[in-house]
Design a protein that fits this description.
This protein has helices at 11-16, 32-42, 61-71, 116-119, 132-142, 166-178, 184-201, and strands spanning 2-4, 24-26, 47-49, 56-57, 77-86, 91-95, 113-115, 147-158. It is an alpha/beta fold and 205 residues long. Strands 3, 4, 5, 6, 7 and 8 form a 6-stranded mixed beta sheet that branches. α6 (166-178) packs antiparallel against α7 (184-201).
Length: 205
């Protein structure tokens, strides 16, 4: 399923080559999480993976996750290793976070395969523009859904999108404060730190 926000490049020309293998919706939306909620609602499978543009799966990613799910059908959310690529900084590394990382930040969302029953209970909160996936995972954990970390490379992520922005960092801190993972002082300190960090990167500090 491809949810497209009326692309003006050659995206639709490429997608239409595979029209017999997929479902395409190309229309204006209210942001990435509106698009995700829309795609999830259309999905008929038990296990749902989500990818943003510029990210991609390893060739055996779906096979690995489906086989793991078949062995452990009681698990609701499967996630694995992610190749993190920052072309500007020339960084290419493999990362992976277990569930315990949620108190510090988001697990690798491009690697997540989530059972449909989770989405029947929780959807992405569209009031967040860039970190609703983090809010979603915290609520899933609080609702008692089980997570399983698969120690295999599942997806590839290139920086430069909205999740790499300072706005996303601010939203993450707001979410951490909301769920009492940090206090107000810690939030203020981290905001100052990231302001200095991003300011230096742009030559403003």
């Amino acid at each position: 399923i491809i949810i497209d926000k009326k692309s003006t490049d050659n995206t639709l020309q490429i997608v239409n080559k595979y029209a017999d293998k997929l479902t395409l919706v190309s229309e204006m939306d209210a942001g990435i999480y509106d698009a995700m909620n829309k795609g999830i609602a259309m999905a008929s499978g038990e296990l749902i993976g989500l990818l943003n543009s510029d990210d991609w799966y390893e060739k055996d990613a779906v096979e690995i996750m489906v086989n793991t799910y078949l062995q452990q059908p009681e698990i609701a959310i499967f996630h694995g290793l992610l190749r993190y690529i920052d072309l500007e900084k020339k960084i290419d590394k493999i990362i992976g976070q277990r569930l315990t990382h949620l108190k510090n930040g988001m697990i690798a969302h491009p690697t997540c395969f989530v059972h449909k029953r989770v989405y029947q209970t929780i959807t992405f909160d569209q009031s967040y523009r860039s970190s609703a996936d983090y809010d979603f995972m915290i609520r899933a954990e609080q609702n008692g859904f089980q997570f399983y970390f698969v120690e295999k490379l599942i997806a590839n992520f290139r920086t430069g999108g909205i999740s790499s922005s300072f706005a996303a960092i601010k939203e993450t801190l707001v979410i951490q404060r909301k769920y009492k993972l940090i206090n107000g002082v810690e939030k203020a300190i981290q905001l100052v730190y990231f302001l200095i960090k991003y300011g230096n990167r742009r030559g403003r500090v």
